[in-house]
Amino acid sequence: MNDRILLVSNVQLNPYVRLLADGLQAAGASVRLVSGLSLPSLLVNRRRGLDVIHLHWLELLYASPRPIVSAWRLGMILLTLAAARVWGIKVVYTVHNLAQHERRTPRLNDWGNRALFRLATALHVHDAVTARALAPWASKVYIVPHGTYIGAYPNTTDRAAARARLGLSDAGVVYLFLGGVRPYKGLELLLDAFRTVDDPQARLLVAGHAHRPDYAAAIAALADRDVRVRLLLRHAPDDELQFFFQASDACLLPYRAVTTSGAALLALSFGCPIVAPRLGPFPELAADGRGLLFEPDSVDDLARALRVVCQVNHAAAQAACLAYAQTLAWPTLAQAHLAAYQARR
User: Fold this and answer.
1) Half-sphere exposure of residue 46, counting CA atoms within 13 Å on the CB side?
2) Hey, is 8 helix, strand or coil?
3) Is the dihedral of CA 96, 19, 121, 327 positive or negative?
4) What would the pLDDT profile of 253-310 be if each residue is shown by its tens digit?
5) What is the domain extent for residue 63?
6) Does the chain have fewer CB atoms within 10 Å around its N or its C terminus?
7) Measured between alpha carbons, how far is 71 from 84 in angstroms, rounded to an integer?
């Protein structure tokens, strides 16, 4: 069967959906990518032929600064999906997040999730932990891991060149926090833990856009307490990611809550081991030499993990990370998605 699939996502910076589309097309499907969904657009796509609507990040599709507008947008999306089901079009939803990161409209988010979970033909999750969290909808759930980012970004540098580019010494451990600077990611916890690392040559790179100016100011004030912290509160362009990851001994993910971590897969795809809490997907991702774990919300245990990083064989850890990321090729994962689409009615 030559599936005709509509992938719906308005996320621009993360290439996840584009990589999935490429994998599906390589597997023989016909794929269109759109940034939103409405009844008129559904009618157009239905006339072209449509078998599956696969949505991503519902909370971003309806988000607005005004809650009443968010509620209206969500209602229209759900109405459109209900019409799709009546017309025999399958609806698949990838559960990237169970809750909004900033919990701006938690009741609306929870209601929207429940409504979509009922409407959906299938619910895609990346790991067994999330599947267990969706136990009431177990008959709809299927697991396909998050795919690799190998090849999705430039990666032509090495450790020495990357450190030189960033003005870092060849000596000393370099820790990296990279991505959107947001409260749920636990950066305050990390800065507290890093201050306890007794190594004057150690460096902590914090690179990413801060979504809220007040939070950026609070993080800057904490970072100013330690001259070993380099704070770059801006978006890191695609061609710069390689320098941050190749220069670093570990990517730090001190999240307070997590469902899926594309950031972890990104680090592993650059051969950079992770340090993360024992939450959600992290124990599996950090296994077999790919990273270190710490107890959630524990400054002391995170500090312990940071000290252990300097004892890790970096070359062996890098090889383990890359070997794992290579098992997550998108064409292979796309075949599993297609099988899941076709198994649902």
Assistant:
1) 17
2) strand
3) negative
4) 999 989 888 999 999 999 999 999 999 999 999 999 999 999 999 999 999 999 999 9
5) 4-147+329-343
6) C
7) 20
- Say if residue 322 is in the same domain as residue 196: yes
pTM exceeds 0.90 for this model: yes
Same domain, 73 and 142: yes
Which H helix or E strand runs over 91? strand 90-94
Q: How far is CA 202 from CA 59, 162, 187, 291, 307, in A?
A: 38, 16, 17, 18, 10
Q: Which helix (H) or strand (E) holds 276?
A: strand 274-277
Q: Which residue has the tokens 């524990």?
A: 298
Output the six-digit token pair for 258. Answer: 């997590």
Q: What is the CATH number of the domain that holds 177?
A: 3.40.50.2000
**What distance lies between CA 254 and its chain's CA centroid?**
14
Q: Report H helices in the chain.
A: 16-26, 39-48, 58-62, 67-86, 106-119, 128-133, 159-165, 187-194, 213-223, 241-247, 262-269, 282-285, 299-309, 314-326, 330-343
Number of H helices, E strands in the chain: 15, 12
Express each pLDDT in 10-25 by its tens digit.
998 899 999 999 999 9
Torsion of CA 42, 44, 48, 49, to 10 degrees: 20
